[in-house]
Design brief:
With 426 residues, the protein is an alpha/beta fold. The chain is built from twelve helices and twelve strands. β5, α7 and β6 form a beta-alpha-beta unit. 38% of the residues are buried.
Length: 426
């Protein structure tokens, strides 16, 4: 009995810890979060809501018969719709209609741009950054394995490109610089005008400057004239998914990577209804940057009330990234199911983020990283509710982990004590 009492005494801290853990499962009034938070969408960087006007246009044109590649009256009607849609987009970005190539995704546009230059200049030198979208970065890695020379430019803690390194990296055999305008994971806006100037003043007249501007298009002022090629898409600004484009200043400077009938660079039948819906989205889309900045700062203030967080977004934009210490991303996703957010770009999947590796080469930033992206139509209240809910769940998870760790430690101590008592033959 004395032995049992002694063991009970040593087990008391564990019992108390378990009891506290159970009590923590009961509702707790840490912060009041509003009840109307079901299905709050905070993943606009992946895809924006389809606008009513764009959807109506798509529905209208999709009911028409024919194929614009044909020669009959139905085909002629569809071709006229495509031509008018192209004129609308060309006017918006300040280029000629033959400088717009429609594709089915930004990924496809990026592949056409990068491979188009590489195939025209076999074995040439290429430059990109370490935080590019996978549809650019993985093409460069493939080319590097195929014998091309590639330079990956470093970035700072917030993803800003090292312009001095870029300037020093340009060689006589360099044929392409591909740097994104806006990073979809942490919201970095590159100084593409400065990059274009470096390329132009390098003395190498054969370099083409390509930029993936998918996240910036329609949201932030963009001068297309500084690019030789630029990737942009419709579903980031309210068109249905499945339509994007590549601006090409001079088509003769890249080689085709696909073959068939129709357009030399992207052959095949064109999706007339999607092209028309894309044009309508371009016409009607408008982002209020003042609202975006205000809501970004409000979200940031609330998020920073959580201990041990690392904000990865330096300047206000529609993308906010934060890394949180002491929790697992999977646990947060499970607990925060009333909100749709992301860990990074939608194409990342379960793989490690190249962006995080680039901004945090020493691994000091926690791996649990959240991307919250929104439009000017998302109420500030929804963002604040998200931050408050996040704070509650983070504190719960940290406490549960602490209790769990403590229980494991106490269990280890108990086992050691039992062995010692047995050895003493008490």
């Amino acid at each position: 009995m004395k032995c049992l009492s002694l063991l009970s005494l040593f087990m008391l801290p564990s019992l108390l810890a378990v009891s506290a853990h159970i009590r923590d499962k009961s509702p707790k009034k840490l912060d009041k979060v509003s009840d109307d938070q079901t299905s709050i969408y905070l993943d606009y960087a992946a895809s924006a809501h389809i606008s009513d006007e764009s959807l109506k246009k798509f529905d209208e044109i999709s009911k028409l018969d024919g194929n614009s590649s044909g020669f009959n009256s139905h085909a002629k009607k569809l071709k006229e719709i495509e031509d008018e849609s192209t004129r609308i987009i060309a006017k918006k970005i300040g280029c000629s209609t033959d400088q717009i190539l429609f594709t089915n995704s930004a990924t496809m546009s990026n592949n056409i741009a990068v491979l188009g230059v590489a195939y025209r200049y076999p074995g040439c030198h290429l430059i990109t950054s370490k935080i590019e979208h996978k549809s650019v970065l993985n093409v460069f890695k493939y080319l590097e394995k195929s014998g091309y020379r590639v330079t990956y430019i470093d970035v700072d803690r917030y993803g800003n490109l090292n312009l001095d390194q870029l300037k020093k990296s340009i060689r006589p055999e360099t044929r392409l610089v591909s740097i994104q305008s806006f990073n979809s994971e942490i919201g970095t806006r590159q100084d593409v005008a400065a990059i274009a100037k470096i390329v132009k003043e390098s003395g190498n007249e054969n370099i083409l400057f390509h930029s993936d501007i998918s996240q910036a298009f329609g949201k932030y002022p963009t001068d297309f004239s500084i690019f030789d090629m630029a990737t942009f898409s419709g579903y980031k600004i309210g068109s249905p998914k499945g339509i994007a484009a590549l601006y090409i200043k001079d088509r003769q400077k890249i080689s085709p990577i696909f073959f068939g009938s129709g357009d030399k660079l992207f052959p095949g039948s064109k999706p007339t209804a999607l092209i028309a819906a894309f044009a309508k989205a371009v016409e009607v889309y408008k982002l209020d940057s003042n609202i975006i900045e205000k809501n970004f700062l409000s979200l940031k203030r609330e998020i920073e009330k959580i201990e041990d967080v690392y904000v990865n977004s330096e300047k206000p934009s529609h993308v906010f990234s934060v890394s949180i210490k002491g929790v697992l991303l999977k646990d947060l996703v499970d607990r925060m199911e009333k909100f749709s957010f992301s860990s990074g770009c939608s194409c990342l999947g379960q793989g490690e983020s190249n962006v995080k590796e680039a901004i945090d080469p020493e691994g000091k930033i926690p791996s649990a990283t959240l991307r919250i992206s929104f439009s000017d139509k998302v109420p500030e209240k929804n963002l604040i509710d998200f931050a408050k809910s996040l704070k509650i769940e983070v504190e719960k998870l940290r406490k549960e982990k602490s209790v769990s760790d403590n229980c494991e430690k106490q269990e280890g101590d108990q086992n050691d004590l039992s062995k010692a008592l047995a050895n003493l033959k008490l």
